[in-house]
């Protein structure tokens, strides 16, 4: 089974801090995604990547950046955390290529910014 | 932008009853997928239906897709308390492989 591991389940940070959320997948998937989930808003795509060193903006990239130096690892970076970035962050990977691809999600990282 | 919209937002039923959730979307799709999320956890893929399929089954799950109405339904038969979770539909648009999720239906199955 594909496993997607998010490094932290719960984080508490202060406004202005730099925050790193790490995500690692173990099945050689091409595509990786970062979503945030908020009550009443569902899942919103922040950034995604279809290849190493490649990144694409999703629907809400402002305030975030990403890094994909290795195929298995996709990091989400909050350069200067703000209270409105308090949320559940979900990483997912996808096989890639042609054909229908499902997402495999990590367990989520709940970030609180004080 | 949200592609899929689930209906109802919340559903409460008794164990043994059937649960039906609906999803509507706006654009042309390659496929539609349903995911489940237990409280505070990541999403788990349940079932995928392609745009040229009308119905699909997996165990107690039955999914239908009507591309003319741009809608899908997920039926869970003989529900169990363990089915309590949020259920999300996600659409893969013809323009690319990224998925767009709806806001989900919170299902509560009472023992």
Largest sheet of chain B: 6 strands, mixed
Q: Strand tally of chain A, please?
A: 12
Give the termini separation of chain A: 37 Å
Number of helices of chain B: 0
Instruction: Name the helicity range of chain A.
Output: under 10%
* Average pLDDT figure of chain A: 93
Strand content of chain A: over 45%
Helix content estimate of chain B: under 10%
**Between the first and last Cα atoms of chain B, what is the distance in angstroms?**
37 Å
What is the N-to-C succession of helices and strands of chain A? EEEEEEEEEEEE
Structural class of chain A: mainly beta
Walkthrough of the structure:
The complex is a heterodimer of chains A (114) and B (111). Chain A is 0% helix and 51% strand. Chain A has strands at 4-6, 10-13, 19-21, 23-25, 31-38, 42-49, 56-57, 65-70, 73-78, 87-94, 104-105, 109-113. Chain A is globular, with a radius of gyration of 13 Å. Chain B has 111 residues and is an all-beta fold. In chain B, the strands form 2 sheets. In chain B, strands 2, 4, 5, 9, 10 and 11 form a 6-stranded mixed β-sheet that branches. In chain B, strand 6 and strand 7 (61-66) form a beta hairpin. In chain B, 38% of the residues are buried. The mean pLDDT of chain B is 92. The A-B interface holds A 4, 31, 33, 35, 40-43, 45, 48, 58-59, 88, 90, 92, 94, 96, 100-108, 110 and B 1-2, 30-31, 33, 35, 40-45, 48, 50, 88, 90, 92, 97-104.
List the helices and strands and how they pair.
The complex is a heterodimer of chains A (114) and B (111).
Chain A: E1 4-6, E2 10-13, E3 19-21, E4 23-25, E5 31-38, E6 42-49, E7 56-57, E8 65-70, E9 73-78, E10 87-94, E11 104-105, E12 109-113
Parallel strand pairs in A: 2-12
Antiparallel strand pairs in A: 1-4, 3-9, 5-6, 5-10, 6-7, 8-9, 10-11, 10-12
Chain B: E1 5-7, E2 10-14, E3 19-24, E4 29-37, E5 43-50, E6 55-58, E7 61-66, E8 71-76, E9 85-93, E10 99-101, E11 105-110
């Amino acid at each position: 089974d594909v496993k997607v591991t998010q490094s932290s389940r719960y984080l508490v940070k202060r406004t202005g801090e730099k925050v790193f959320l790490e995500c690692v997948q173990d099945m050689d998937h091409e595509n990786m995604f970062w979503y945030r989930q908020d009550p009443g808003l569902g899942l919103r795509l922040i950034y995604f990547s279809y290849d190493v060193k490649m990144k694409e903006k999703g629907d809400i990239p402002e305030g975030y950046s990403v890094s994909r130096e290795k195929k298995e690892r996709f990091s989400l970076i909050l350069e200067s955390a703000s209270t409105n970035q308090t949320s559940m962050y979900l990483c997912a990977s996808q096989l890639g290529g042609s054909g229908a691809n499902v997402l495999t999600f990590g367990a989520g990282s709940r970030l609180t910014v004080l | 932008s949200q592609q899929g919209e689930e209906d109802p937002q919340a559903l409460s039923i008794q164990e043994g009853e059937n649960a039906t959730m609906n999803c509507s979307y706006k654009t042309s799709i390659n496929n539609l997928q349903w995911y489940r999320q237990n409280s505070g956890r990541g999403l788990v893929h349940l079932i995928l239906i392609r745009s040229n399929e009308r119905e699909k089954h997996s165990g107690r799950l039955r999914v239908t897709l009507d591309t003319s109405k741009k809608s899908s339904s997920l039926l869970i038969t003989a529900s169990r308390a363990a089915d309590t979770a949020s259920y999300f539909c996600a659409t893969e648009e013809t323009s690319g492989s990224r998925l767009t999720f709806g806001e989900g239906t919170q299902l509560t199955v009472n023992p």
